[in-house]
Amino acid sequence: MHKQRFRSPDSRTDGATNNWLTTFNDMMTLLLVFFVMLFSIGSLDEDSFKQFQKGLQGAMGIAETGGYASEGVISVQQSLVVEENSTDNIQVFERLAADHILEAEYSCGGIRIKLNNELLFQSGSAHLTEEGLRILGKISALINPMHRYIRVEGHTDDRPIATVRYPSNWELSTDRAVSVITYFIDQGDIAPALLSAAGYGSSKPRALNDSEAHRAANRRVEIILGRQDSLGPDA
Prior knowledge:
The structure is a single chain. The protein has two domains: 81 residues, no CATH class; 136 residues, CATH 3.30.1330.60. The termini are close together. A five-stranded mixed β-sheet has the order 1-2-5-3-4. By secondary structure, it is of the alpha+beta class. The chain contains eight helices and five strands.
């Protein structure tokens, strides 16, 4: 994972811009989205969720009409407040991570959210479960106003599948990624131009396929949020 370094304003040369501050604000915005998303999935009712979503849009400088407000970045002071108010959200994240339900990591390429396939699909199927629909509904409601590029990746373990619909894990993983994309378009009202899908079968495991626990970790869907130029194969 790449680490971003920031210089103090005093170290800038003449003519330098505030790019370091913009990058810092961008990072904190993404972290805010991430923690609010985790909190909403874990414990919020519908009314509370809408309040969090509205507050998120305001913090990001997004007007109710869908356009950007005049101040489109979060100040350093606002960012520090976000950090201070994230304790409860971090605790929710830790509980979800402990249950192996959801993992996430931040890098210069954006946020990578990892969901177990068992949460979204039945074995050998690309049809979203009721629980999967609920989770994707909360996620799509939060990422819709961000106007970020989103790539969805499907992954499987190394156990072969050979059915009429899915001759191999390549087809299954791709179809699962497309199912998530289709939901984001049809139910999440996310612009198709912001979305892409890829299926990797068992070619990119997170762990060795030498135990059921490791195979379960490899069966996953990953949702990557970032800029278009950051969503390359290794984002």
